[in-house]
Amino acid sequence: MALNSRATSLGFAERTETNLVHLERAFAAGADVHLITQLVNSLVGFVVFPWERGVNERLERLPLDEALGAGWPAWRIQSGACSTLGDLVRYLRNGVSHGHIEFSSDERELAQVFITVSNYRNSRAVAPNFVAIIRADELRKFCRKFSDEVVQAIG
Predict the structure, then answer these.
(1) How far apart are CA 124 and CA 126, in angstroms?
(2) What's the pLDDT score for residue 61?
(3) Residues contacting residue 19 through CB under 8 Å, at least 6 positions apart
(4) Which of 40, 90, 145, 155 could, after both became Cys, cross-link 151 (CB 3.0–4.6 A)?
(5) What's the CA gap between 21 and 39, in Å, rounded?
(6) Residues 6+ apart with CB under 8 A from 130
(7) Angle formed by the axes of helices 53-61 and 85-97, nearest 10°
(8) 3-class DSSP string for 15-64
């Protein structure tokens, strides 16, 4: 299968998804790989990598409650608020790109680890203006939905 150029959002999303699937298979076969680390790397690939306008516009228009109804996994928002999937992705993008990620443990099973992403209004802020938590297996679903969204928007 020929992939799109990695310089495009579609090509980068394809490669990110392919790498994640290969690591999932390796993990299932007992290989010493770190699937949760790869999930966060995939999140970086999906939400931090600059993506084409079509993806951003679709996400900005999609109310968060409708996204949940369409199968997007729920992030538990502990601080702050967002009304669209685009708002959530913007907070995630900022938090992830600035390294504001925490893990509940070093467990390797997806269902046993919670990932917290925080966003700070600016570099001088003492407290985050947005904090969201998701279990790693739900983050996998989020990454898959995001990859599908990129394909639908520009594929």
Answers:
(1) 6
(2) 85
(3) 38, 42
(4) 155
(5) 10
(6) 77, 79, 80, 81, 82, 91, 95, 118, 119
(7) 120
(8) HHHHHHHHHHHHHHCCCCCCHHHHHHHHHHHHHHCCCCHHHHHHHHHCEH
Distances (CA, A) of 146 to 2, 89, 122, 140: 21, 10, 26, 10
Tokens of residue 50, six digits = 């600059």
Residues sharing a CB contact under 8 Å with residue 96, sequence separation 6 or more, in sequence order: 40, 43, 44, 47, 48, 117
Here the contacts of 97-106 (C-beta below 8 Å, separation 24 or greater) are 97/44, 97/48, 100/128, 101/40, 103/36
| Dihedral (CA of 66, 96, 31, 5) sign | positive
Residues 90 and 115: beta-carbon distance below 8 Å? no
81 band by pLDDT with thresholds 50, 70 and 90: very high
What percent of the chain has pLDDT above 70?
91
